[in-house]
Design goal:
- The complex is a heterodimer.
- By secondary structure, chain A is of the alpha/beta class.
- Chain A has two domains: about 240 residues, 3-Layer(aba) Sandwich (Rossmann fold), CATH 3.40.50; about 90 residues, no CATH class.
- Chain A is built from twelve helices and twelve strands.
- In chain A, the strands form two sheets. An eight-stranded mixed sheet of chain A has the order 6-7-8-3-9-10-12-11, with helices on both faces. A four-stranded antiparallel sheet of chain A has the order 2-1-4-5.
- In chain A, helix 5 crosses helix 6 and helix 6 runs parallel beside helix 7.
- Chain B has a single domain, classed as MetI-like (MetI-like fold, Orthogonal Bundle), CATH 1.10.3720.
- Chain B is built from twelve helices and no strands.
- In chain B, helix 4 runs antiparallel to helix 5, helix 9 packs across helix 10 and helix 10 packs parallel to helix 11.
- The two termini of chain B are about 20 Å apart.
- Classes of the chains: A alpha/beta, B mainly alpha.
- The structure holds adenosine-5'-triphosphate and magnesium ion (MG).
- The site of magnesium ion has 4 residues of chain A, from helix 1.
């Protein structure tokens, strides 16, 4: 990809887990992230969507080197994270923070909210006690948490408040890059909107860059500038938000987008219900990862895996038939076939 | 805290142990005879007004011996469990959290220790180190290490997978900081539960070693030793073994009740 103004760049990132099979000693291998390359530009919100279990969380964990990737490299501001020493990595992590998927499990139940919010400050030796307290109170205010709670414990918080605390914590060291892994999925809809607006406001104020992960397309559509679509560990389509919604190139993206419920109840869309079997991550198949469920597949698709190809205007898709299919959201060509 | 006290097991076990501790603490106030005063003319006397638990084969007051014996038995057990908790938990937490080579090495070491019956291991260590109170603590404590190791390692393995541990790493925390700030506090409750079970085990081990004549050197009384001394007269003068044995049993029971209660209290699913 040509653009040089990127903050973080993934090149051929692959993560394979070995799973102990129940029979005997042979361990099976599960490729959770398979040869993914893309970059995230400074100041943008990059949305990553894909169904549950497609490797989204694994992708960012490998990208931040929270788990070791099996192969590939990640450049953060031009420096390869996988060539850094542990100490250098600890320093760089100051600039990259994560809001984790599960707000109920991401706060140590035995620490006070103050300790939790100030944890990054303490790790990176920010100021003295008084200064940290002041900063913590500032952060509580920024994310809309009542400051009186500061001496409380996480079990006293609601899910939404926990998520706010996680966000406060991620912001505490004024990072450059924040990964939000399903940052709002555990919350109910009214609070989702509050948190999303909070995240976008903070981005404006502090010039943040987000990797925004979700399986909820409406949410991703609301916040993102560019969107990547993942399927079974692979990046299958990547485009600017409007471009993606207007000119779908990959049949999987089509299926995903057409499954989004419309806000208008009188309007019924023909759902592109996916047929065929879900492939197993344990037994990689030849050809395109999507071919067993794709209504347009032919022999080529079962034999050769498609490359991620550039279709102009920053629109990439990994499909042999991309551009030949009519995948406009209103005609419902997938549904007709099924 | 209120719910902690509403648990019947915790209350009962705690009360029994508290009583034992008070007896040990106020031993001089509770006894009138010296614990080592020989009076061979009055040996093996049945319980009477002068000697409420009778006298032992050397004519010493059994109640007095048992009361002073509680000091030695409890102290040795606390020290032994202290050794085991510290060594076992540290090894276990480091193994469970760091995994890899350290885990493998420590795991094999523990396997070797577990291959010996713990009483045999105590005896080997006791004989190798020679008789003294400190060596007694070591010889009882070392065989208990695997219990704490296994609990701590298991707990650390599962805590290590939790999001807040990964979150702390992702914020740039070093592994040792994460281990002390996040893993340790969440592993402690589980260690706490086995702690009281370990106490019971070590009282028993102390008694067994004393009974086998490998305990604290004479004439300091310990429960196991008193049982041992009364053994030849078990049928003609059962009070010596009986009362000291009852104290051993009550203490172990108390610690086990406390342990069960704590486990129920900390794990609502049980
Ligand atoms: N530590 C691990 N060991 C083995 N397999 C793993 C591990 N972590 C994840 N996986 C597997 O990798 C695949 C991708 O998991 P991942 O958590 O990245 O999915 P996800 O896209 O984040 O899903 P969700 O939307 O449900 O969070 C899953 O099949 C999962 O079972
Ligand atoms: Mg996930």
């Amino acid at each position: 990809m040509a653009d040089n103004d990127y903050l973080i760049r993934l090149e051929g990132l692959t993560k394979t887990f070995s799973i102990n099979s129940s029979r005997g000693f042979r361990s099976a291998r599960l490729t959770a992230v398979n040869d993914v390359s893309f970059d995230i530009r400074r100041g943008e919100v990059f949305g990553l969507v894909g169904e549950s279990g497609c490797g989204k969380s694994t992708l960012y964990k490998a990208a931040l080197r929270l788990i070791e990737a099996s192969s590939g490299s990640v450049y953060y501001q031009g420096r390869n994270l996988y060539e850094m020493s542990f100490r250098e990595l600890m320093k760089v992590r100051r600039e990259m923070q994560v809001v984790f998927q599960d707000p109920y499990d991401s706060l140590n139940p035995r620490m006070t909210l103050e300790e939790l919010a100030a944890e990054p400050l303490r790790i990176h030796k920010y100021g003295g006690r008084a200064r940290r307290l002041a900063r913590t109170e500032e952060l509580f205010a920024a994310v809309g948490l009542p400051v009186q709670l500061i001496k409380g414990y996480p079990h006293q918080l609601s899910g939404g408040q926990r998520q706010r605390l996680c966000i406060a914590r991620a912001l505490s060291l004024s990072p450059e890059f924040i990964v939000c892994d399903e940052a709002v999925s555990a919350l109910d809809v009214s609070i989702q909107a509050q948190i999303l607006n909070l995240l976008l406001d903070l981005k404006e104020q502090m010039g943040l860059t987000y990797l925004f992960i979700s399986h909820n397309l409406s949410v991703v559509r609301f916040v993102s500038d560019r969107i990547g679509v993942m399927y079974f560990g692979r990046l299958v389509e990547l485009a600017g938000k409007d471009e993606l919604f207007d000119h779908i190139l990959h049949p999987y993206t089509y299926a995903l987008l057409s499954a989004v419920p419309e806000p208008d109840p009188g309007w019924i869309r023909k759902y592109a219900v996916l047929q065929g079997s879900v492939p197993s991550m344990l037994r990689p198949q030849a050809g395109c990862v999507f071919h067993s469920r794709c209504p347009h597949g032919d022999r080529l698709c079962t034999q050769t895996p498609p490359e991620l190809r550039d279709f102009g205007g920053g629109h990439y898709a990994a499909c042999h038939k991309a551009g030949e299919l009519n995948l406009s959201l209103d005609t419902g060509c997938l549904a007709e076939k099924g | 805290m209120r719910t902690l006290l509403s648990n019947k097991f915790i209350m009962l076990g705690g009360a029994m142990i508290l009583a034992m501790l008070l007896i040990a603490l106020f031993a001089p106030l509770l006894t009138v005879y010296p614990y080592d005063g020989l009076d061979l003319a009055n040996k093996n006397q049945a319980p009477s007004l002068e000697h409420m638990m009778g006298t032992d084969p050397y004519g010493r007051d059994v109640w007095c011996r048992v009361v002073y014996g509680s000091r030695v038995s409890l102290m040795v057990s606390f020290a032994a469990v202290g050794v085991a908790v510290v060594c076992g938990s540290v090894l276990g937490i480091v193994s469970g959290y760091l995994k890899g080579g350290f885990d493998l090495a420590a795991g094999r070491l523990i396997d070797i220790m577990m291959a010996f019956p713990s009483l045999l291991l105590s005896m080997i260590i006791g004989v190798a180190l020679g008789p003294s109170t400190r060596n007694m603590c070591l010889s009882i404590g070392i065989p208990l290490i695997p219990i704490f190791y296994r609990v701590a390692r298991g707990a650390a393995l599962s805590v290590g997978e939790r999001t807040f541990v990964i979150a702390s790493e992702s914020m740039g925390s070093g592994r040792f900081r994460t281990m002390f700030r996040h893993v340790l506090p969440n592993v402690l409750p589980q260690i706490f539960v086995v702690l009281s079970m370990g106490m019971g085990g070590s009282i028993l081990a102390e008694a067994s070693l004393g009974f086998l004549g490998l305990g604290i050197p004479q004439p300091t009384p310990s429960w196991g030793l008193i049982v041992n001394e009364g053994k030849p007269y078990m049928f003609t003068a059962p009070w010596t073994t009986g009362f000291s044995g009852a104290f051993i049993a009550l203490t172990i029971w108390g610690f086990n009740l406390l342990g069960d209660g704590l486990r129920d209290h900390l794990d609502p699913r049980v």
